[in-house]
Amino acid sequence: AQTVTQSQPEMSVQEAETVTLSCTYDTSESDYYLFWYKQPPSRQMILVIRQEAYKQQNATENRFSVNFQKAAKSFSLKISDSQLGDAAMYFCAYRSAGTGNQFYFGTGTSLTVIP
Amino acid sequence: DVKVTQSSRYLVKRTGEKVFLECVQDMDHENMFWYRQDPGLGLRLIYFSYDVKMKEKGDIPEGYSVSREKKERFSLILESASTNQTSMYLCASSPGQHPTEAFFGQGTRLTVV
User: Fold this and answer.
1) In terms of Cα–Cα distance, which of A25, A70, A22, A39 is closest to B88?
2) Which of A31, A77, B60, B102 is most buried, by the most CB atoms less than 10 A from its CB?
3) Could you tell me which residues are beta bridge partners of residue B9?
4) 3-state SS track over chain B
5) A17-44 pLDDT, tens per residue?
6) Do A43 and B107 touch (CB under 8 A)?
7) Can the peptide bond before residue B95 be classed as cis, meaning omega within 30 degrees of 0?
8) Of B31, B90, B98, Cβ closest to residue A45
9) How far apart are CA B46 and CA A46, in angstroms?
10) How does strand A64-69 pair with strand A60-61?
């Protein structure tokens, strides 16, 4: 099974500043998909951003962007101009493009935004 | 919008009870998943289903079973609840085609006393 590692259990950022959340994964596959999910206190998991491994260009969604390093198996999330509403648990996830339909999740990073 | 609905947000059950957690999705998705979420452990897959009446074990299936009699509904069953099954349970669904993401329900916090 693939493994997804988030080495930062907790992070904090000042409002309006930039923060980067780290994620690494282990796979022998060449084609796969990576995701960042946000889970606010309401518990509803929300997709933040998605990256296809075959695409070299890093995905961006408004203030959220990723740094995808395929050779290093690294997939970090950058949040720019942090807002109070960004405070949440963030989970990195992996899904194979080939066999199997499972999503593999990391252990999460709890982000605090300081006013 | 895709909607995944879990039958309860909070449940309190007694040790030894049979517990049913229900999940319904309204987007005709082939795949459905049950995850357990515990602090420091992230989301761990219990079971998933890629079609009606089909199921596959995830990483932690012990003590759980599932049922998928209709495409839109995926039930998680705790045959005899134990205190170590106190947790947050998340249901998700996704289409069979890639590269789509998983869509999640709002979670059920189960306490077994």
Assistant:
1) A39
2) B102
3) none
4) CCCEEECCCEEEECCCCCEEEEEEECCCCCEEEEEEEECCCEEEEEEEECCCCCCEECCCCCCEEEEEEECCEEEEEECCCCHHHCEEEEEEEECCCCCCCCEECCCEEEEEC
5) 999 999 999 998 888 999 999 999 988 9
6) yes
7) no
8) B90
9) 20
10) antiparallel
Question: DSSP string spanning A24-87?
Answer: EEE-S-SSEEEEEEEE-TT---EEEEEEETT--SPPEETTEEEEEETTTTEEEEEE-S--GGG-
What is the rounded average pLDDT for all residues in chain B?
A: 93
Place of tokens 């066999």: A99
B34 touching A, CB under 8 A?
A: no
Residue of A103, A104, A109, A110 to mutate, interface with B, max B Cβ within 10 Å:
A103
pLDDT tens-place string over residues A48-72 = 999 999 888 999 999 999 999 999 9
Tokens of A88: 């949440």
Residues 22-61 of A with CB under 8 A from B: 33, 35, 37, 42-45, 47, 50, 52
CA dist A51 → A36, A37, A39, B101 (Å): 9, 12, 19, 10
Phi then psi for residue B104, to 5 deg, are: -110, 150
The radius of gyration computed from the CA coordinates of chain A, to the nearest angstrom, equals: 14
